[in-house]
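step=encode ok
step=design start
structure_in=
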């Protein structure tokens, strides 16, 4: 009785298993009542639509396509912000269902004709439910972070690799469809294990990628602190030097005033004194972290002979995590400095402020060639690209995290990078 009931509703059970696993994994922001309601209504609608069609058009491939489509539709409607990773989980769960049912079919062929076959069938149904439960636990324990901005080739491999395992499974099912040899069960178990292993290795790769991004940020932070210590030491030395020169400058200025050499006085003030103030410029934008970063990086640029203009006005506190703010500004400014060093007369314009409910950053650097024509994807051209090229990926990941906008363009001989982050 239980077996017949399962056979009559196994398509609905499978669909519920898939969407329940995906929903429990990626619907943290959804309230439990809403989650249970969406699962119930979605499963009910699936059953009402699927069963009549199944009776008229009993097709295995129609069942696979329709179930996958409905699961993806559920993910799009209720898990839209995490649709990509949710759809990946739907695909892997569907692959595991196919392999599990293929293995079940193989086992039924082996035990067919046994007087106790009904008992075996009952145990097999229980075994299939147990597999569904274990698969659900496995995928929930190894959740892929939806906010990780991965290169396209990662996602292509992630989706395509298990597809070939399913092709192998289908070929084996067609070849040994009625085999009663117990050895025929081994390939299904091996393929199922290989599929789980593929997902787990993908999970590890993505997790390690996240750690690599984090270590890249920590490296930048350490370099910034090192630069700060180096500049602090330089400033201490400069102050000591200025103390010795201050007295001489004072007497020199006093003599110029007494002798009424105002042209020489103006020249001295404009050329000597102003230049020293520029080298020791500190920023007071209203935000300490931004002051700290701009002081270091603008002085670094000016020491390299690059002209820098700034227009910054910020509140004391921002609803942006310091590590994200630091990583974004460092990468944008470092990219501008690096590009400006290749120009005969480097020029950088930095604008930072609040526009309505967005944190806005725009950094322009003079460019003698259209970068977007020669390198539209802005891929790093450094020889050791394995350890570089994460800057723009980090920026895009931060922009995605804050539901922002990242845009690059060429404007009147300047390469312009603009970022807007939504302030909660």
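sequence_out=
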């Amino acid at each position: 009785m239980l077996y017949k009931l399962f056979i009559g509703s196994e398509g609905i059970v499978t669909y519920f298993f898939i969407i329940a696993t995906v929903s429990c994994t990626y619907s943290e922001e959804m309230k439990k009542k809403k989650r249970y309601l969406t699962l119930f209504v979605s499963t009910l609608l699936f059953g009402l639509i699927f069963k009549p069609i199944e009776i008229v058009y009993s097709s295995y491939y129609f069942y696979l396509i329709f179930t996958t489509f409905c699961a993806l539709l559920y993910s799009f409607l209720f898990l839209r912000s995490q649709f990509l990773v949710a759809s990946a989980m739907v695909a892997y769960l569907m692959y595991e269902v196919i392999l599990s049912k293929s293995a079940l079919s193989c086992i039924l062929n082996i035990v067919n004709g046994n007087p106790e076959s009904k008992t075996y069938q009952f145990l097999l149904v229980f075994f299939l439910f147990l597999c569904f439960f274990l698969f659900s636990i496995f995928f929930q324990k190894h959740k892929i972070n939806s906010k990780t901005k991965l290169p396209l080739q990662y996602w292509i491999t992630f989706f395509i690799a298990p597809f070939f395992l399913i092709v192998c499974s289908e070929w084996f099912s067609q070849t040994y469809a009625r085999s009663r040899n117990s050895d025929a069960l081994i390939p299904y178990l091996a393929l199922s294990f290989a599929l789980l292993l593929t997902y787990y290795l993908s999970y590890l790769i993505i997790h390690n990628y996240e750690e690599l991004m984090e270590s890249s940020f920590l490296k930048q932070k350490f370099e910034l602190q090192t630069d700060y210590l180096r500049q602090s030491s330089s400033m201490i030395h400069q102050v000591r030097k200025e103390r010795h020169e201050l007295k001489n400058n004072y007497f020199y200025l006093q003599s110029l005033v007494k002798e009424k050499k105002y042209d020489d006085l103006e020249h001295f003030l404009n050329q000597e004194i102003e230049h020293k103030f520029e080298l020791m410029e500190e920023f007071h934008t209203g935000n300490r972290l931004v002051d700290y970063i701009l002081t270091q990086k603008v002085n670094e640029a000016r020491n390299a002979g690059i002209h820098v203009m700034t227009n910054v006005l910020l509140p004391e506190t921002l609803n942006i995590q310091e590590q994200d703010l630091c990583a974004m500004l460092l990468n944008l400014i470092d990219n501008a400095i690096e590009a400006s060093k290749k120009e005969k007369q480097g020029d950088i314009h930095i604008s930072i402020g609040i526009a309505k409910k967005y944190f806005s950053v725009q950094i322009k650097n003079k460019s003698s060639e259209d970068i977007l024509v020669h390198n539209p994807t802005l891929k790093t051209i450094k020889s050791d690209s394995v350890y570089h090229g994460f800057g723009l990926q980090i920026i895009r990941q931060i922009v995605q995290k804050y539901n922002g906008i990242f845009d690059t363009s060429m404007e009147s001989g300047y390469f312009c990078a603009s970022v807007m982050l939504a302030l909660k």
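step=design ok
step=annotate ok -> Residues 381-389 have pLDDT under 50 and may be disordered.
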